[in-house]
Amino acid sequence: MPEIHVTDREGNKHTLEAPNGEPLMETLRDQDMDVEGICGGQCACGTCHVYVGEEWADKLPAREEDEADMLEAIEDMVEVKKTSRLSCQIEMSDSLAGLTVEVAPEF
What we know:
Elements: E1 3-7, E2 13-17, H1 24-30, E3 49-52, H2 54-57, H3 65-74, E4 84-86, E5 100-103
Parallel strand pairs: 1-5
Antiparallel strand pairs: 1-2, 3-4, 3-5
């Protein structure tokens, strides 16, 4: 299981283990990082929005159309950055060991 580094909404830093093959959203939700994922990972709510560390942004697969559309839909309510991703769309693997993310503000 790769370790990831998460900054929560209060600025606290956490190191978590994220199971391979599962969406990052599930780890963040299950470890009480204030990520809801109310749509269950269907790219339909935006409640799992994170900012990926800049050094990791190009190492992740590109946003699919559904993810880009959802990020566009929430940008009037919360800041969407070039490193914004929906954590439900990031499948964990050993290649992401050391990934850094910040939980985006609530909207």
